[in-house]
Amino acid sequence: MVTNLQDDQDAQDGQDAQDSQDTPAPQHAPDAPDAPPPGCPAHAARLYGPDFRRRPDETYQRIRRDGGQVAPVLLEGDIDAWFVLGYRETRQVLSDTETFGRDPRRWNGWDSVPPDWPLMPWVAYSPMMPFTEGEEHRRRATAVSEALATVDPFVLRGHCERFADQLIDKFAPRGRADLVYDYIYSVPTLATAELFGLPQDEAGLETLAAGLTVSFLSDEEAIAGQQRVAGYVAELVRAKREDPGPDLTSRFILNTPDLTEEQHTADVMVLMAAALPLTSYWIGNTLRLMLTDERLAMTLSGNRRSIGEAMNEVLWADSPLQNLIGRYATRDTDLGGRRIHAGDLVVLGLAAANADPLLWPDTPVGHAGNHSHVAFSSGDYGCPAGGPETARIIAETAIEVLLDRVPDLTLAVAPDELKWVDSFWYRCLDSLPVTFSPTPVTAG
């Protein structure tokens, strides 16, 4: 689960120290060549369009080659921004909240943004926690971490096993399925409902899942999708403020009695937006890797590599969360050889940072056991303590149960025929058709 929330900094620092023992230290990049600042489209790559959607990794490589570790780019609608591709530079921005703030009202480019901009839902200022700063942010983020600390991992795993079996029972006798529509979204949706105290109403959960998915797409439905989710979450928050229960929504509300209903709604919506899409796409990208990569093919039946290793490789090499908007320079500063001006928008290329060749200067040594990636962001606005572990339990359980029930999964199309969702934020499949030997439903 990832969002721009307070991390347990002590735990993060300890993890980073351990990870640094396994990860080659990034070499110092030479100063990037001089380039015009945002505002000169002729010198900026576009982070949208069919080529970017098909192979974002190639786009990142081209930008790094032509522009260095920090480069000018164009977002949807040719909106100017700085794109951070370097691992060292990404860590710098994530840790320096004094120079790179979160309040989007600082952005000096709002005059060029149309009201129907597809990226607007998660960029325009609202009372949600990611846009707060200083003590207010720390207080609200701590409340999230305290709520997550109450999640029992064994109970959660049991729920996820039950959800997975129920979903597999629906397609197991057919011998074929589209895992995106039949499974990958559904397990995290049901787990989110259990965690947040949502009613087990199929229509309502479909509204939530579809709305969150659409809100991160690069099309005209993004704003409407977020608005539908906000309405759904507002009803939940209203009910939990009146009648709390043993769930994350109620615990967060009880931990923050001074927040308004609007603030509670915004923060709970952010938590769901962090939990559901990323966990779903983590499952999907891991299954795709295991179905298409010869090194991992035996995992399906022979367990040559653990599912956990495949999941970790995805976080490094095919991260579900690709890019984050954003940070806004609070003053003029230098970053990666570029001059960043106060009010400039800085986009964090998390996937590009994980693939930084300066991080892996020689032949890759592999990702096993190395968790120093930035797939969950980091620092004060990284995923809160307990968040990644909660997402891992949901994703790992979903994959384990699926491979246990249908171990001979086979991709039903050629790997290059798989289609990807058009999203600046996420890397996720539009469809994952598979075939397998029909199997009976589980007893009970």
Keywords:
six-stranded mixed β-sheet; alpha+beta; three-stranded antiparallel β-sheet; disordered N terminus; 444 residues; 15 helices; Cytochrome p450
Question: Topology, pairings included?
Answer:
Elements: H1 9-20, E1 45-46, H2 50-54, H3 56-67, E2 70-75, E3 79-84, H4 87-95, E4 100-101, H5 134-148, H6 153-171, E5 176-178, H7 179-184, H8 186-196, H9 202-215, H10 222-242, H11 248-255, H12 261-292, H13 307-317, E6 323-329, E7 333-335, E8 338-340, E9 345-349, H14 350-354, H15 387-405, E10 410-411, E11 433-435
Parallel strand pairs: 1-2, 3-9
Antiparallel strand pairs: 2-3, 4-6, 5-11, 6-9, 7-8, 10-11
Describe the structure.
There is one protein chain. The protein has helices at 9-20, 50-54, 56-67, 87-95, 134-148, 153-171, 179-184, 186-196, 202-215, 222-242, 248-255, 261-292, 307-317, 350-354, 387-405, and strands at 45-46, 70-75, 79-84, 100-101, 176-178, 323-329, 333-335, 338-340, 345-349, 410-411, 433-435. The protein has a single domain (9-23, 47-435), classed as Cytochrome p450, CATH 1.10.630.10. It is 45% helix and 9% strand. α8 (186-196) packs antiparallel against α12 and α12 crosses α15 (387-405). It has 15 helices and eleven strands. Mean pLDDT is 87; it is low at 1-39. The strands form three sheets. The protein has a six-stranded mixed beta sheet. Strands 5-11-10 form a three-stranded antiparallel beta sheet. The chain has 444 residues and is α+β, with helices and mostly antiparallel strands. Residues 1-55 are annotated as: Disordered. This is Cytochrome P450.
